[in-house]
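job 3f2a | input accepted
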Amino acid sequence: RDQPRSRGLGDVYKRQGQRIDVAAAHPEVMEQLMQEYEVWWDKVSERAGDYCYFLIGEKLGEQQCLTQHDLLTGDKGVAWNQGHIRQGRAAVGHWPIEIKTAGKYRFDLRRWPLESGLKLLESAPLGDKIPQGVAYKEGVSLALAAASIEVGEKQAELMLEPGAEAAGFTLELEPGQYKLFANFKNDQDSYSSAYYVYTERLE
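job 3f2a | predicted structure (203 res):
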């Protein structure tokens, strides 16, 4: 908001890359968008410092996915896109979660998304060609050795099994708001939060 040099207007129908600023040719459109932006900014700023808790297990058997993009790390960075994940960019933080219903919950920590079918220690193949873009590079294999989880006072750790797709934990949880820590540890005892955490209320 405080960086006027970043403001511009692109014609996405004619130039998908939006490299040409057409704001000067359409001042009325620019003015309308800026007014709408100010309204939006004022609205979201009211709760800018609030935690947004992820509601976990609202429906029995419904699987949810948390990614590093949602990770809270303070002023540290995260792997917020597929390029970062393929590079194995490490970040440590937590996810704010809310449990509405007491029960048994499953947490699966993954290096790669479920639909990829890749195992924890595997590398990812070269990505598909992207129209007007560059395919993702191969994803690196990480020397992961163990995984751990912490939700409130519940903690658990396990050594990773060869050939496993995920590190799975089952916890009995009571209703409340928690910080979810779900980490991998490599063979050099360095930690990184899981890239994907799949959650599900079992009962």
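job 3f2a | The beta strands are 54-56, 64-67, 95-99, 103-110, 144-151, 154-159, 167-173, 176-186, 191-193, 196-201.
job 3f2a | closed
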